[in-house]
Design a protein that fits this description.
Length: about 400
């Protein structure tokens, strides 16, 4: 009896051993390269959910060893040279992903794709709240979600609407129905493509997608094509990332909007600063940020004017900004610029020579400026034309105040 029990026990152990080996072989496949196909996957250091975990983002490359645990559910992967375990319900892996050869249908869409891809592939980016200026700080470019979207749109629209203003605030961006500046010619209409329910067939490159993740309309991204979007998020290392629209983000989808700019032809009108000090602003409105200032008679180019009080101008150094129309003279030869003599003893020359006959004016006398040739400024006084010689700024001789 003892011999029989010993034999039976031995046989059971052998069968158990071979059964376990057989089970492993049943759950073994060939090793292959796979990619994260969902917005992320969750992996663990061991084949149980209580072991330390790590989130791996979309498009990350891993190696599927083909092995599973004895129960056939947990998959063994290689990530960054280390073994990790993945439960297939936590995200999705695929052997291939969509190509990133996105194509725009319009010049604007193409420019959106070019700008976004440049930022994604060439710029070291990080997440920064309300950051949208595209300037490097501490070795990185900082964006939040709407800051990234508005920055890319800014670059893509500059050809069409050099005078427009896009808000980097997500709430303002969502509410916008058209983008234009206070009557300036040309505008960008905003069309709602999808509202409430996502329809992938309706999306085009450059569409802005809005989501509600932790609150109402608290995240946005740019649709690129092939079911993918690009956004700035504080998740992972905070860099600008590609993500699939389907899955997690589809579940939180609010709306998709399309921006349709129309080309505006610049006036390119030669002009001069018509005030003793002409302030150039970042935006229209005297409460806007001041960019710089130029002195009387400095040249500039009027690009666009509105129907009210503002002009969008380009300075001699290439900088662009807004200034009041009253500070700009586009008809120097005709109407000219009305001025007063700044100090006593201003000499008006009858010709463009310092030895020419002259008259002298005292402080407060009215003259009008009509041109410049070298260091000689042409002025009109009592119906006659004279010249003021100065190698410095004419603002030292005349004032508009």
């Amino acid at each position: 009896m003892k011999k029989f029990l010993a034999y039976a026990l031995s046989a059971t152990m052998v069968l158990g051993m071979f059964g376990a080996v057989g089970a492993k072989k049943a759950h073994a496949e060939e090793e292959k390269t796979v990619y994260v196909a969902s917005h992320l996957i969750k992996v663990h250091t061991e084949d149980n959910s209580k072991s330390p975990e790590e989130m791996i983002p979309y498009r990350t490359c891993l190696t599927d060893t083909g092995e599973t645990n004895p129960y056939g559910k947990w998959k063994k992967l290689i990530y960054n040279g280390k073994t990790v375990w993945w439960w297939p319900d936590d995200g999705e892996l695929k052997e291939s992903l969509p190509e990133t050869n996105y194509k725009g249908n319009t010049t604007y869409q193409t420019k959106v794709l070019e700008t976004a891809k440049k930022i994604y592939s060439e710029w070291p980016t990080a997440y920064g709240h309300n950051a949208s200026d595209g300037k490097m700080k501490n070795g990185k470019y900082y964006f939040d979600c709407s800051g990234f979207v508005s920055y890319v749109m800014d670059k893509a629209m500059s050809k069409y609407l050099p005078v427009y203003n896009i808000s980097a605030d997500i709430t303002e961006l969502y509410k916008t129905t058209s983008i234009y500046n206070k009557g300036f010619d040309g505008e960008c209409k905003v069309k709602t493509v999808c509202n409430g329910k996502l329809d992938m067939d309706k999306l085009q490159p450059g569409d802005v997608l809005f989501f509600s993740i932790n609150g109402y309309r608290d995240h946005c991204s740019l649709y690129l094509g092939n079911g993918e979007m690009m956004h700035s998020t504080h998740n992972f290392d905070g860099s600008v990332r590609l993500m699939p629209v389907k899955g997690f983000y589809e579940e939180h989808f609010v709306a998709a909007k399309r921006y349709l700019p129309t080309t505006v032809k610049a006036a390119n009108k030669k002009a001069y600063a018509a005030a003793s000090t002409t302030t150039i602003y970042k935006n229209f409105g005297e409460n806007a940020k001041k960019l710089t200032s130029i002195r009387l008679m400095q040249p500039l180019t009027v690009l666009y004017t509105d129907n009210g009080n503002w002009a969008y101008v380009k300075l001699a150094n290439g900088k662009k900004g807004y200034t009041l129309l009253t500070n700009v003279c586009t008809n120097l030869a005709g109407k000219g610029i009305s001025c007063r003599v700044r100090n006593n003893g201003l000499k008006l020359l009858a010709g463009k020579s310092q030895s020419a006959k002259s008259i002298t004016l005292n402080k407060g006398k009215k003259v009008s400026l009509h041109g410049k040739s070298g260091n000689y400024y042409k002025v009109k006084y009592n119906g006659k034309y004279y010249y003021i010689y100065t190698p410095k700024s004419i603002a030292d001789k005349l004032t508009t105040y």
